[in-house]
Amino acid sequence: MDAEELAAALDAVVRGEHGDPFAVLGLHAADGAGDGAGNARCGLVVRALLPGARAARVIPDAGGPTAAAMQPVRSEGLFEARFPSARERFGYRLEVTWADGVVATQEDPYRFPPTLSDFDLQLLGEGTHYQAYEKLGAHPRVLDGVTGVVFAVWAPNARRVSVVGDWNGWDRRRHPMRLHPGHGIWELFLPGVGEGAHYKFEILGRTAEPLALKADPYAVAFESETPRTAGVVTHLDGYSWGDAAWMAERGGRNAHGAPISIYEVHLGSWRRVPEEGDRFLTYRELAASLGDYVADLGFTHVELLPVAEHPFYGSWGYQTIGAFAPTRRYGGPHDFMAFVDQLHRRGIGVLLDWVPAHFPRDPHGLVYFDGTHLYEHADPRQGEHPDWHTLVYNYGRNEVANYLVGNGLFWLDRYHLDGLRVDAVASMLYLDYSRKPGEWVPNARGGRENLDAIAFLRRFNELAYRYHPGIMTVAEESTAWPMVSRPTWLGGLGFGFKWNMGWMHDVLDYFRHDPVHRKWYQDRLTFGLLYAWHENFILALSHDEVVHGKGALYQKIPGDDWQKFANLRLLYAFMFGHPGKKLLFMGGEFGQTREWHHDRSLDWHLLDRGPYHRALLRLVRDLNRIYRAERALHEVDFEPAGFQWIDCRDAEQSVVSFIRRARDPGDFVVVVCNFTPVVRRGYRVGAPAPGFYRELCNTDAHVYGGSDEGNGGGVPSEPVSWQGQPHSIVLTLPPLAALVLKLGSP
After folding, report:
1. Residue ranges of the chain whose pLDDT lies below 70
2. SS3 per-residue string spanning 58-82
3. From edge to edge, which strands make up the β-sheet containing 668-674?
4. The pLDDT of residue 742
5. pLDDT, position 161
6. pTM of the model
7. Do the Cβ atoms of 353 and 317 come closer than 8 Å?
8. From residue 234, how far is each of 218, 219, 309, 311 by CA, in Å?
9. Residue 277 DSSP label
């Protein structure tokens, strides 16, 4: 560049507005015309921007030219040193005398080459770099024997990007980054920066509109202090996993024919430490206490509400800004690894709620990231979510879809998670979701389907199962969208399972009614079996049903304490007998009496109050034990061969009875439910085979807080055909109770 161009470039550098700092800073041909490798016919020059420095020298490596003092060329701290006799590039360090008189020797970031390969850039640009988290973000590295951190961020429309942090006083002028033209990726290797450094990106957009300092979208850890918006340089390697046995066999534990009983947990409110200011339990404390609790109750998996970093605790984790970082509220990345590891060693799978449907408007997050609508759509009819006042990802942009796919794979890879439950899938599938006419934009075919989101979900599921074949993916999808849990090669979305929202709504509506009126609502119990085989369903009594004024499950049910707990016992037994995997939100297992709130612990004191809470806990433990032991209750959940009604039409007495079968049809159990508080004696139920029908479970048993009505442990069959079955049994049906019976010895 000529003298005028050089002067303008120097001015832009000191103002923090130069988009290509490597063209000015570092080692260059003095006349601006070298051989393309930094060598020059008229010598070399080293420039460095050192705001706050009083003086500086260039100290060449051994074999290089003689050390030279740097001359100030701008009062804002821009220095240069010329080496007129030098013709070839050389390594060097800077000796800086700061304003306070301290003299320090440091590396110059602008002497190091790029770290991203052309192949990486190509994959990132086309959206097929599924380990992008290994290239973008902040990564401790050693280059040319020098220890430091490589920072990289995608911001294609920025004029200039600087990495700022606690090592440079958050000064945007000090460390502007290198742009890879055509790819929109900015990177910089910063020598001397190490683990624990706090950082953000300062982005200069194309307009004069200032942008907040941006959190790193790929940060793997965030500051523990509020507001939790600065990334923290962290090395994820170094944790020694001990779950090899679990990882080798988890495919069988997550299979469609396996018993899957999930305990859904919000880590910040499951249990706290009131003696220490009601503080949270740490990941490692939770690994021990939650692991013991879940193992004792017999749940096969835990599902965590989102743990990705979220500054707003009241979002429960569903408004994330740190998609790659477990929240620091409970510890660091290695602590979360230890949590997963310990649960695996206890034989417990770990699922995570994952939120690719939307992101918050926090100015330090993804919104308007580089001065443009980069991650979201510019048109609010596409880019804004009306229900949650959040923003919708632009799934049609390769880099955005790649960011999300890579994020899901990251959790499965680095944290050994056994599956992801994808939140709010329905809001992704429909362009008109929660929108009135005129408030949405049809797709290219004129329809309401979000074709880009559909393609993204299919691609994610294909890759998740390809790279991690033992895992499960679960859709929270509340509409009748077909084939959600069918393979993509059959035209499905590729999920392994889908929450059965219809069953949950119908059954809870049924239980809200006083038993005297239930005969008019029998279809709420039976309708789900009309579509039970359309998807691989999970029956979910989730957190969504016990918040926002809906009340706890206990509060939804009419009657006094006895009736409420009898109904809860009946509800859980009906769920465990019904086809589909199981999920119960924390607190439901012991009859939490007020709705869940994220700012307080569960009411554990209830276990010592009255006879019912601890008795309900015992029932849940026994239901899990029976469910896991009896193949008939879990082996054929998603085919008609695993279920047969005995009688679903006795609405007058509010009784249903059915058979569950294993792969071996001779291995079966009979489930009979009485949804009224009336004891029904001499009630005849059809039976598929002769013999003694032993009670595996009677939810009215005294040990569960019931009235102890029942059948003395079992009954023999009679050679009386009934309800389409060749034999029958005559039972006493306890009030508001379920019986689970199996052929066996008296």
Report:
1. 31-41
2. EEECCCCCCCEECEEEECCCEEEEE
3. 643-650, 655-661, 668-674, 737-743, 692-698, 714-716
4. 98
5. 96
6. 0.95
7. yes
8. 12, 9, 14, 19
9. T
